[in-house]
Design goal:
Layout: H1 8-17, E1 22-27, E2 30-33, E3 39-40, E4 46-53, E5 63-69, E6 76-82, H2 89-103
Parallel strand pairs: 1-6
Antiparallel strand pairs: 1-2, 2-3, 4-5, 5-6
Length: 105
Amino acid sequence: MSDEPATVLGALQFLAAEGFAVSFSLGPDGFRCGACGTAHVLESVEVVRVFRFEGPSDPEEEAVVYAARCPFCEAGGTLVSSFGPGADPELADRLVLLETRFEGR
């Protein structure tokens, strides 16, 4: 039996209990911290955990939850995004970079 969360909500609750309670966003100006409001280049963001969720029958239900730390204020937070065919094509390359930063550990 796995201790991994089975849903996006479960992952967010799990990570909040671990101190990742701030919401992050990803946009044209970079990775924005919900605590201090600062936008950062992705190369400076520390990715701590990644959870992927795939819908049992619908590729549109694919989602990923990133747990990260702000390089400026060191707040722990989460970023939730779709991936696969339902992902925003403009953000897809940036999400791949986040994934690479985690896998490179």
